[in-house]
Amino acid sequence: MNDTSKRSPGEGPIPSDLLDVVVVGAGLGGLYMLYRLRKAGFRVKVFEAGGGVGGTWYWNRYPGARCDIESMEYSYSFDDELQQEWEWPERYATQPVILDYVNHVADRFDLRRDITFNTRIKTATFEPSAEVWTLTADGLPPIRARWCVMATGNLSTPQTPDFKGLESFEGDWYHTGIWPHEGVDLSGKRVAVVGTGSTAIQMIPKIAAQADHLHVFQRTANFSLPARNAPMDKERERAFKATYPERRAEARRTSFGVSGYPLPTQSALEVSKEELVARFQALWDEGGTIGFLTCFNDFLVSEEANEVAAEFVRGKIRETVNDPEVAQLLCPNDHPIGSKRLCLDTGYYETYNRDNVTLVNARATPIIEITPKGIRTTDAEVEVDVIAFATGFDAMTGALREIDISAAGGERLRDKWEGGPLTYLGLMVNGFPNMFLITGPGSPSVKSQMIHSIEQHADWISDCIEYMRENYITAIEPEAEAEMRWVLHVNEVADGTLYPRANSWYVGANIPGKPRVFMPYVAGTSVYREKCDRIAAAGYEGFKLTTESNPASAVAGS
Ligand code: N01
Fold first, then answer.
1. How far is the CA of 331 from the centre of ligand 1 (A)?
2. I need a surface site. Which of 60, 124, 440, 480 has the fewest CB within 10 A?
3. What is the CA radius of gyration of the chain?
4. CA angle in degrees (0–180, nearest 5) for 520-63-160
5. Separation of alpha carbons 56 and 74, rounded Å
6. Which of 389, 405, 422 is the last residue of a domain?
7. How far is CA 201 from CA 68, 117, 216, 390, in A?
8. pTM
9. φ and ψ at 110, to 5 degrees?
10. pLDDT digits (tens, 9 = 90+) for 214-249
């Protein structure tokens, strides 16, 4: 018979139906979380709604889908052999290549044996007396675990606007975030793309090259920079691989978690307008977005400097697009550059010089309904065979709100977040003990190289659970006051920048009725990492820890 009374969580035999950790999601976050926790000796299972690994890269298979961070950076850093052996074919990897990579990682580290696919978690409930999370999914018995990690992604709940008449459409329609796996043959078709965010900007040149005619419905013009994508420069790859550990360490000292772009020290206001323009030209020629975002320490603070950059890009649009009216319509004029996700493209603006592409001003003449034959705006009906909705996601909170998460006293996360997400460090939520979020709201998340931030969070979470095991701690949750201070801090930092000036998904503006709260933490990944490490080193400052010596929790782990 096992004496479990002195066992710390995660140690020794456990009842066969009780896991140490349940992880929701087998994207880049869930996979690395599984790897780390398994290595630390915990019994972990992952549940994934999709039929394979990859998360965002599993679902987003629209034409032109590609990462806008360079491949040498956008990859796991946790295993040097992995980063040495994998060869990226291009400067920016396509979705199929990234999905191959994620599958390779899953196989290489034998991760699949602990993942259950095609399983969407519906509810997650914390039982305070037993300190156990119980998760449910259709067709499975309840899943019980001491800790729960939500690796559900920031952009995993696609949003199709509630257009009147959509069900009457006689053609085919798709949302880019759940694009058919077998692809869609658009040759000879009349196609509509609704939306002009990062997704549409990648997709539009590809569709235009295939379709008979493409109508783009643009409500808000976005800033986009050239990617200057190219086959991988072998010399650059060799140099990178020779210094990978140093590169990764350097990335951790930057704002966005990308090496080569150190924390900016110069104010844009210290240089002449001519020099500013010359710098922006050099960055335009180099390709990529991170250079623009990190060129000056006040690029996203000083309206004056920001406007020079914005006007520089508008000038490029006017130079590129032949029809002056179309060019003008493509020039963003309602938000500072970089305050919305800065897009990266290959031939986006050039596409509007094609005879088979028409830009529809969906701001002046909004879409009022979908008809059996196409899309009706306040101005006209546009007949199409296919509609591609590139209309975005219920970002950062959508996937968590889709799961009915409840905890002590029956409090539900959905209710707690009614006025906007409340977290401590974007990692945990007061009232929801032993539940961790990977890249949750209130952390740098989408304002950083995602794999960098995923690794930082999964490392922090694994270290925390190991600390609990070593110290006989059965439960951890943020103090309400620490959580409130963090939320205020996240907002204060954002309010010191130009970010809140845009109606972006960063503030939930794309979802009708969603509270307007700036969700990512934009002080930079290095500042954030330092805070997380300091808090852990101080014995998890701001967290409430329950130990086995507390009789109320002595049964945990038994
Ligand atoms: O979504 P979005 P996305 N009528 O929300 C329009 C990541 N990503 O899928 O701005 C007409 O940015 C909406 O118009 P408006 C990246 O983080 C990464 O493009 O609300 N239009 C907007 O133009 C990105 O930011 C990569 O006025 C309507 C568009 O739909 C995030 O995903 C690649 C409408 C939605 O744009 C989301 O990008 C691609 C309506 N009723 C994406 N409703 C990488 O490279 C919405 N719109 C890693």
1. 17
2. 480
3. 24
4. 55
5. 14
6. 389
7. 12, 31, 10, 9
8. 0.95
9. 50, 50
10. 999 999 999 999 999 999 999 999 999 999 999 999
